[in-house]
Fold this protein.
Amino acid sequence: MKTLIISANQQQANFIKKGLAYESVFSNTLPATVTKEELELALRENDGLYVIYDNQAMLENIISCVEKVKQGMPIMVLSNDYHKHLDDLKLLKKIKDFFVKPFAFRHMASEMKFAIFDIKEKIEVRSYVVRDLELDLVSHQVKVGDDVIYLRNKEFLLLHFLILNKGKVLTRNEILENVWDRNADLLTNTVDVHISNLRKKLERGRSCKYIRTVPCLGYVLE
């Protein structure tokens, strides 16, 4: 379980981080001035979000980004004072909850833990994320950053198998047996050709590499 704290006041963010750590909720912090790209990457890598309230526009921009990148991620707002629109956002289910100073760290931590566990237990895995690469099983869509990548059926299945075994070196035989029918009449370079095509589509115009060839062994997605 990983959470993120966003605040315009890094001293206050560090204080909140320390208080949550005592309750076994460990967090990273980001300034409110973070770029859109940095925020999207951080959201993908965390399970829950605390926002230290500064102003309404800042909060709504963050909520909008969460809805785009990681819909359903629990958002909890920490505020020095009560604001009516925080109640409105909670009723609209835009945020999970909000807390007004003085902050009760045990309550804030337990609410976040429950929200994250609830999501993980109730929502069946429908998508996988590796860095800025996302594979969605329901829509049968693959995205790299904001770009939708068109994959043929076998390319999609191949990428799914690589992601499921992220970090593990897979031999050509393992890939053939799990992505293709082992009894099918296939060319000896079938896996190599599909890996090559998949690489081109995922890495076109980008410096980021996803699939590494391990000489004499096979391939690994990193």
